[in-house]
Amino acid sequence: MADTGSGRKRIIVVGGGVSGMAAAHRVVELAAARGTPIDICVLEARDQLGGSLVTNRHDGFLVEAGPDSFITQKPWALALCKRLGLTDEIIPTNPAFRRTFVVRRGRLHPIPEGFLLLAPSRIMPFVTSRLFSWPGKLRMGLDLILPARDHGRDGDESLASFVRRRFGREALERVAQPLVGGIYTADPEKLSLRATMPRFLEMEAEHRSLILGMRRGAKAMARAAQERKTVQSVDSGARYSMFVSLASGMSRLIDVLRSRLPADAIRTNAAVTRIAPVSGRWQVSLADGATEIADGAILTCAAYHSAELVRPLDASLADDLASISYASSATMSLAFRRDDVPNPLDGFGFVVPAVENKTLIAVTFNSVKFAGRAPDGWVLMRAFLGGAMQPDVYDMDDARLRDAVLRDLRDLLGIEAPPRFVELYRWPRSMPQYPVGHLHAVAAIHNKLASWPGLAIGGSAFGGVGIPDCVYSGEQAAEAVVAHLADARVLASTASSGESGAAFAGGSRGTRIGRCSP
To answer: Domain range holding 138?
Structure first.
């Protein structure tokens, strides 16, 4: 679809996951705000949009195949939901059971109150916890007197190295590895702290002791909470827990994003094989032999697939993208009668340290965590499997994997009865790994992208695996391409008229969105 001279431009998004859909929606928002006509086209290789955001509903159960929630401390997903009119559909976690358990020697122990990922912010719950041995607690207490390490401005360290240095081996094995493993499905010996949890490096630099830093932070949060209560009568805005979901499931986000784009702006079963610059624009080649032409292109597919697309264009950029490794993971949802589960289920679930030698990485009690996930009298839970540390588990066939999960649930929760149903979802090469130095690799990729104006790359491989990170990555890519088109238009207008003008000046004031060629 060529630019007819009316100022209309066209952007193609490759990949219809949450990053791609957020990017397409952001293009629409920017076009409307600036009164600039931009056609948007989303090409998705699979037969449905959403990537890992898949919600299935049947017999009163709501089953999430991928992420079941997002964090509100990172504001981008929450902000997007508000702009989409989804505020009334946002639901918090169950306030009565906001705690997580860790398996130790085959039994579930609650993570001490005030313990946040790596360090305690409250002393007494930590001291009285049975999760750690007394030698382990004493070693963790040495954090109070240990000196800080100077990492410099961009220094990095693996999660395992950092936790062992500050808190000792037991803290790594019993808490840090299983908690972080449940998020990134990663090997802590390789995982970059700078890329995943930089706040802990910053806390060490500022406070020396993480325990002191956590306690000071907790006091500051308590003061802020008290101030919010003071102004609550004046400004009674919505209040959310740290994690929230959507009442009808996370795929609702994708459904609403799609509704903001005309149907002819979306093409599924449209695998892209190559992109190439042609006369200042971008030619996108598809597996079915079709080609699309656009003024800008946004790649939000997996980094290894983006590498294939750009290799004919820039082998060095392709090599950098291909160097980002991925782990395969799976989720298994199971439904049981509540009377058949002896465990009180008085938390959101549990994580399993690798030293326990179980099949499970973690289990979430979905029907406890969020309302409306199972009918009365039933329990819905979900197991997390595979990842970088257990690739052999992912490789099990379905029957063996099911038996192994049921065996672990029997041992840990006392469940002897068969489940009403089991739903297994495999996600091959779905979890990007962030090794030490990952941020330098990402910076190199973006530096090389600067040589190709109008091309942007986003997705979970670069800034984070959570939904807010993916939304942010997609929106940033969209803003970069739209800004490029604005600059190009100003330069073209200046060259033709000999006058300077504002970006997006002239042309139609209406916004047209769509369409993909049939």
So the answer is: 110-230
| DSSP secondary structure of 394-461 | HTS-HHHHHHHHHHHHHHHH---SPPSEEEEEEEEEEEE--BTTHHHHHHHHHHHHTTSTTEEE-SHH
Same domain, 473 and 419: no
Q: Answer yes or no: are the C-beta atoms of 204 and 148 closer than 8 Å.
A: yes
Q: Is residue 252 part of a domain?
A: no
The CATH number that applies at residue 357 is 3.90.660.20
The answer as to whether 180 is a domain residue is yes
Per DSSP, what are the bridge partners of residue 244? 70, 92
CA gap 432, 408 in Å, rounded: 27
Per DSSP bridges, beta strands 115-116 and 38-43 are: unpaired
Quote the tokens at residue 280: 């200042």
pLDDT, one tens digit per residue, over 149-181 is 987 777 899 999 999 999 999 999 999 999 887
pLDDT of residue 126: 84
pLDDT digits (tens, 9 = 90+) for 337-365: 999 999 999 999 999 999 999 999 999 99
Contact residues for 127 (Cβ-Cβ < 8 A; gap 6+): 137
Token pair of 333, please? 């949802």
Report whether pLDDT(234) > 70. no
pTM of the model: 0.89
**CA 393 – CA 331 distance, rounded (Å):** 12
